[in-house]
Amino acid sequence: MPRVIGNPVDIATPHGAMDAYAARPDDAKPHPLVVIFMDIWGLREELFGIVRRVAGEGYHCVVPNLFHREGRFSYAPRNAEGRTLSFDLLPDDVQREMRGRAERLDRATLRADAAAILEWCTHEQVTQGPAGSIGYCMGGREAFFAAQEFPQRFRATASLHGSRLVTEAADSPHHLIGRMRGEVYCGFAEFDRGAPPEVIGLIEDGLRANAHLAFKTQVHAGARHGYALPDRDVHDHAATEADWTSIFAMFRRQLAA
What we know:
Helix content is 32%, strand content 25%. It is of the alpha/beta class. The chain has an eight-stranded mixed beta sheet, with helices on both faces. The longest helix has 18 residues, at 237-254.
């Protein structure tokens, strides 16, 4: 695995600077873009480590602060073992605050942020071909949005324990899967009230109906929502490594120059 360089960056947007963290292999070559779409907890070292892992596979990886319109934000309360607490264990008022912040993000905010990231890439050591994405929880929805708004660029999309992929809104991610191109991987937890079997079924129906899209879904037995994040109290190492195997194989297929 090559040595990587990682550092904080600011990405210009119409709403001001969007803080982010980026990493790439320590060489002078351009590499394909991979965007990590964060979960509801905000930017933190846990995500920066994921960015560096992706960069070590030969990609220019960045995780933006999707809450940048409300400031620089990170919230990661921990249990006695030092693990980040699951959302359901937080006080009700904190849950409402965090859920409200997430619900203020929509397709329009993602479109603007993704456009800003793609513009930023034109000044970095990034190939201008196909790009990939990995979204966690809230970020799984953002990854679907990115692939639907920029289908000629985002050609390898991964959603891990994605939330709000199926809603009653006209622009719900599951309604617009037909826009997507390339390949999609979805990792689901067996125990996730945000992605029960009927929701997973609707996502799979949409993916299957798109003749321009290859896809794979995996429901991890025994896993709980949040399993793929390494510092989470419900982290499932085996399920996460199975996801990585599928994701990196997808990236190799779809992001070649």
